[in-house]
Design a protein that fits this description.
Layout lengths: L4 E5 L5 H10 L5 E6 L15 E2 L2 H6 L6 E4 L6 H10 L3 E5 L6 H11 L6 E4 L7 H8 L14
Parallel strand pairs: 1-2, 1-4, 2-3, 4-5, 5-6
Helix pairs in contact: 3-4
Amino acid sequence: MNNPTVILVGAHGYGVRHLENLERLAGRVDLVGVVDPQGPPAGSFGSTVRCWARLSDALASGIRPDIAIIATPTGTHFPLAVLALEHGCDLYLEKPPVASMDQFEKLLPLQQPTGRAIQIGFQSFGSGALAEIARLGQPTSVATWASWIR
């Protein structure tokens, strides 16, 4: 069985974390390209693969990734998600998945006929917090406080 192929859209900011995870998963997934107008970060795992400034250019080149990871500014998520779905990709969208409820309500009907999956990322699930809680033993309670400005 072939490894799933992945294209990373957005290699800077939180995209760097995706590059680290893709490097960790090397041998189980194949990074086939990076899309970022700045190119991949210097010396990163992503610097060893092809790079395009735009997803449309990458897909026009003939590559057909199984998975598109979209880690770009929120306002770009919807058009990139639509393009990736049109080209047969499963999607991993960083949160928030789209910029408006209208776009969110349009995304599902676009996804359903493709049969492709969409996963929304949330950094806390990628943190070491759950492993640390497990290491400490059986929790008796969990509480959290947050102050996010959006």
